[in-house]
């Protein structure tokens, strides 16, 4: 986990839509010209875009077997090379919902750093994992840092409309 620089933002749309905008930024050190986009293995996004953060250019994706790969402009051939990538898209997740006035985000997340940004007008009622609750541009967020040996953990966040 020392070299894990994966940061994932889950930007929650209105809970009635079940839509979550996802943005993940990370460095890929795997050798080759077509590394898999791991995020898409556990978060089936629509409207996927991949940006090379070193050049600010969009990169194309393709299917290879069951995985989605990204086509790097400069293949990684040495241990000192890496690609700094940003993946964005929209996740439709029925487990993100509203029932009886309570917003629920219930998802297994992966990686070291995950931030869940609530829709405007909502405040946290409970979080199943320890994390930091704050406010960004008037919206409440929960920032989680996974210090466990596992790469994934389940997070349940409930929220209520601000009064």
Question: How do the strands and helices of this protein lay out in sequence?
Answer:
Blueprint (H helix, E strand, L loop, with lengths): L6 E6 L6 E10 L10 H4 L2 E8 L4 E3 L1 E4 L2 E4 L12 E10 L4 E3 L2 E9 L2 E5 L4 E6 L4 E5 L2 E7 L6 E10 L2
Parallel strand pairs: 1-10
Antiparallel strand pairs: 1-2, 2-7, 3-4, 3-7, 5-6, 8-9, 9-14, 10-13, 11-14, 12-13
Largest sheet: 8 strands, mixed
The coarse overall form would be elongated
Strand order of the largest sheet: 4-3-7-2-1-10-13-12
Order of helices and strands: EEHEEEEEEEEEEEE
How many helical stretches?
1
Number of DSSP E strands? 14
Helix share bin: under 10%
Question: Would you kindly provide a written description of the structure presented here, covering whatever features stand out?
Answer:
- The protein has 163 residues and is mainly β.
- The protein contains 1 helix and 14 strands; from the N terminus they run ββαββββββββββββ.
- It has one helix spanning 39-42, and strands spanning 7-12, 19-28, 45-52, 57-59, 61-64, 67-70, 83-92, 97-99, 102-110, 113-117, 122-127, 132-136, 139-145, 152-161.
- The protein has an 8-stranded mixed sheet, with no helix packed on it.
- It is elongated.
- The termini are far apart.
- 22% of the residues are buried.
- The model has no long low-confidence stretch (mean pLDDT 94).
């Amino acid at each position: 986990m020392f070299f894990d620089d994966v940061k994932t933002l889950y930007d929650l749309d209105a809970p009635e839509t079940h839509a979550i905008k996802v943005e993940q930024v990370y460095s890929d050190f795997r050798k080759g010209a077509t590394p898999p986009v791991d995020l898409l293995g556990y978060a089936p996004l629509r409207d996927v875009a991949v940006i090379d953060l070193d050049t600010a250019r969009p990169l194309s994706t393709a299917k290879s077997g069951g995985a989605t790969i990204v086509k790097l402009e400069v293949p990684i051939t040495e241990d000192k090379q890496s690609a700094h990538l940003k993946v964005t898209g929209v996740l439709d997740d029925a487990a993100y919902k509203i029932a009886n006035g309570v917003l629920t985000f219930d998802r297994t997340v992966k990686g070291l750093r995950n931030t869940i940004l609530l829709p405007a007008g909502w405040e946290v009622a409970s979080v199943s994992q320890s994390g930091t609750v704050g406010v960004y541009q008037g919206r409440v967020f929960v920032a989680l840092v996974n210090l466990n040996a596992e790469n994934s953990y389940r997070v349940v966040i409930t929220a209520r409309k601000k009064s």
